[in-house]
Every structure is written in structure tokens, then in C-alpha cells.
TrEMBL record:
Lineage: Eukaryota, Metazoa, Ecdysozoa, Arthropoda, Crustacea
Gene Ontology BP annotations: cell adhesion involved in heart morphogenesis; larval heart development
GO cellular component: a single term: extracellular matrix
Residue stretches of biased makeup (Polar residues): 217-229
Chain intervals for the UniProt region annotation (Disordered): 190-243
Name recorded for this polypeptide: Uncharacterized protein
Length: 243
């Protein structure tokens, strides 16, 4: 267990501990299609197939497999790929807004904190406080300038804008564990299949609505008379709408 630098301007220090587990981290190098440089004319010609003749006499699953294979092969042939790095292990990508000056000041702040932990000298602690304040101001200035530049160029440079938005977006790819009325946790597949039933049960609704008896001898004139006898409340309109 290690003692880290304080959080912000607080006097409380941070604590770092090591946990032994196996993370499911993605690989460092990831290959994805580069759709901006694709040969869509050749891709269109490759998919110009007489589907009625190719899919005749096949089941739905066999049709899906053939269509998917043709599309995948055409994309791999006519769409180039690109490699980019992803976060994995101890590698951490720097924020898009961080400048070289902000990075150097942040690194100096961490080094001074480690020096203070080793010496316990008050002068080293004062140097750390000064470096901490400089790093905080540098990070705020770099982030403010970067966001201001993106806002000004967002109309003409949408790619940079959405790259920054996606970098700050947190997406959960799996369905979390759910509890049924008996406090039993459901698996992901069970939660996916029974989520509607679980929602109806918690809301006090029947899983399936019960339909009333239908009278086969009810004529169209009787239905029109029943509809005419009902009092239908008109909509309040714009002026009588509740506020």
C-alpha cells in the first residue's frame, strides 16, 4: 500500500493498493475499417448480386449467413484498415486537451510529492504545494483553451469535436445484474429475456393483458350505437391546457 499525493488542495492524502486479478483489457493495437478512404464504387459493384437467384430454397438462417459473408468479404476487399492504440495494462492515454507544459508541470508535481514522502521535510512540502498550484492552473488553462478552440471550429471541423466528446463518454456494453421479486439475481441472458416481465411485475401490472369476451353476434349497428352512447371528453386545447 502506497501513500499518494493529496486530492486537490485537501490535506487528506490518497492511498494506493494493489489487487491481484485478471483484467479483461483490450489489445494495444487495434485494426478498424477506414470508411473515409473506401472504394464505394467497387463495393457497390461487388454487392450487385441477383439475390433472388442466390437465396432461392434456403432457410432464413442460411440466407443471413450468405448475405453477411458477401458484405464482409466486400468490405475487407474494398475498405482499407487502420491501426490505432487502445488503453491496456499500465498504458494510459493522455487527455486530448493536455499540452506539453501542463504535462510537465503535472509530472513535476508528482515527483515532488514522492520526494516529500521520502524526506518528510517542510521545505519539500512547500515546493510540492507550489508545483501543485502551478499544475492545477496549467491544466485548467489548457482544457479551457482546447474546448474554446473546438467550440469555434465545431461547424467546420466536426471530427475533432466528436473525438473529444467520445473521449469523455462512458459506455457500458453489458446488461447489469437484475433482481427478481424474490431477490434472486438474474444472468445476462435471463435479464434480457425477462426484463419486460420483471418491469411489469414491479409496476403491479399483469405480464399479459386479459382480453374480454368477444361476442360474435354483435352487429355493426350495435357497435355504432355503443360508440355513440359513450361520453368522449374532448381535448382541452391550447388555451385550456393545464399549466
Amino acid at each position: 500500500m502506497l501513500r499518494l499525493e493529496p486530492l486537490g488542495a485537501s490535506d487528506h492524502i490518497g492511498i494506493s493498493a494493489d489487487f491481484l486479478f485478471t483484467p479483461s483489457s483490450p489489445p494495444m493495437n487495434k485494426t478498424t475499417p477506414n470508411y473515409n478512404r473506401g472504394d464505394y464504387e467497387s463495393l457497390r459493384n461487388a454487392l450487385d448480386i441477383e439475390w433472388k437467384r442466390e437465396l432461392v430454397g434456403l432457410t432464413a438462417q442460411e440466407m443471413t449467413n450468405i448475405i453477411e459473408k458477401n458484405i464482409t468479404d466486400a468490405v475487407e476487399k474494398h475498405i482499407p484498415t487502420r491501426k490505432h492504440q487502445t488503453t491496456s495494462g499500465d498504458y494510459t492515454r493522455k487527455p486530448l486537451w493536455m499540452t506539453r507544459t501542463a504535462y510537465q508541470k503535472t509530472k513535476r508535481k508528482r515527483n515532488l510529492w514522492i520526494r516529500y514522502l521520502n524526506t518528510k521535510d517542510n521545505s519539500d512540502y512547500q515546493q510540492y504545494i507550489k508545483a501543485r498550484n502551478e499544475a492545477t492552473h496549467a491544466n485548467r488553462r489548457a482544457r479551457r483553451d482546447f474546448e474554446s478552440k473546438i467550440a469555434q471550429e465545431s461547424r467546420h471541423n466536426t471530427k475533432t469535436f466528436w473525438n473529444y466528446v467520445n473521449s469523455r463518454r462512458v459506455v457500458k456494453g453489458s446488461i447489469p445484474d437484475l433482481q427478481d421479486p424474490q431477490d434472486v439475481f438474474l444472468k445476462e441472458t435471463e435479464a434480457d429475456n425477462g426484463s419486460t416481465k420483471h418491469h411489469n411485475a414491479t409496476a403491479g401490472l399483469d405480464p399479459f393483458p386479459k382480453l374480454g369476451k368477444q361476442h360474435g353476434n354483435e352487429t355493426q349497428s350495435n357497435q355504432m350505437q355503443n360508440n355513440a352512447s359513450r361520453k368522449i371528453k374532448p381535448s382541452p386545447g391550447v388555451h385550456n391546457a393545464p399549466r
